[in-house]
Amino acid sequence: MGHARKRKDCYIIPNHPKLNKQLFDALTGKNQQMFWQKNDFKNNVGDGCYNELITIGILLEEDILKINDTPGMAAVSVIQRTTVVRFYHKLFAEWYAANYLSKCAGSMEHGALWFQKEFEKINPVDLQFVFRFACGLNKKASSRIIKYLKGIKDGQSFAILCFFEQVGETDDVVAMVKDLLTGGVTITSTDSRLLQRSTIQILDIAAKSDSAPAFSFSSICC
């Protein structure tokens, strides 16, 4: 999932535009949705998509008992059996949502206000992989996402993690490093080990670049 990932690996999981949009809306809505009625979900994404997800095992069907409290219902009809579907792991849902985000954020069809509105729907704490996967899928989307993350509170550190999802040429990597390190970098004891390691790796790339400017490194707190 990091910078060593091969580009072709991104397409092992089937891609379906209708599914991508549905999951982006479900994950970023006011009330996050993780379960769907089987028939509703199947009708929305199509039979082919549904059957494929079930066959490869990332979408699961579950039978549940539902209480129907509609007035006038016969006692025998109060408890009904229904089938719902959910993804085997939330990461799969985030992957499809990221496909939608990467396509939109990487296109020229939308303006800055649209990007701002869509990005603000995504909680980077709860849905970090929607941002990170999208950065790995689309270089233009990655640039816009990282620019946005650098502008939100405490977003600089998360932008560094998203940086490592981008697969590109050495010159592209160096250019992104320069942009990320503008203004200095701070590593604190409250950062995760992964975040500390990622920051140090970025600094190492900058130090080895012949054209790297003199970056400001704020502090390392133990």
Q: How would you describe what is shown here?
A:
By secondary structure, the protein is an alpha+beta fold. It has a domain at 11-148. The chain is 51% helix and 12% strand. The protein is built from 10 helices and 5 strands. The strands form 2 sheets. Strands 1-3-2 form a 3-stranded antiparallel sheet. A two-stranded parallel ribbon has the order 4-5. Helix 2 (38-45) crosses helix 3 (47-56). The longest helix has 16 residues, at 90-105. It is elongated and about 70 Å long. Residues 1-11 and 213-222 have low confidence and may be disordered.
Order of helices and strands: HEHHEEHHHHHHEHE
- How many helices? The count is 10
Q: Please state the overall shape, judged from the principal axes of the Cα atoms.
A: elongated
Total count of strands:
5
Work out the strand percent: 5-15%
What radius of gyration results from the CA coordinates? 21 Å
Global structural class: alpha+beta
For the residues shown, what is the average pLDDT? 79
Unreliable segments of 5+ consecutive residues? 1-11, 213-222
Note the gap between the termini.
28 Å
Major β-sheet profile: 3 strands, antiparallel
Report helical residue fraction: 40-55%
- Strand sequence of the main sheet, in spatial order? 1-3-2
Relevant terms:
two-stranded parallel ribbon, three-stranded antiparallel β-sheet, disordered N terminus, alpha+beta, 51% helix, 5 strands, single chain, 222 residues, 10 helices, 12% strand
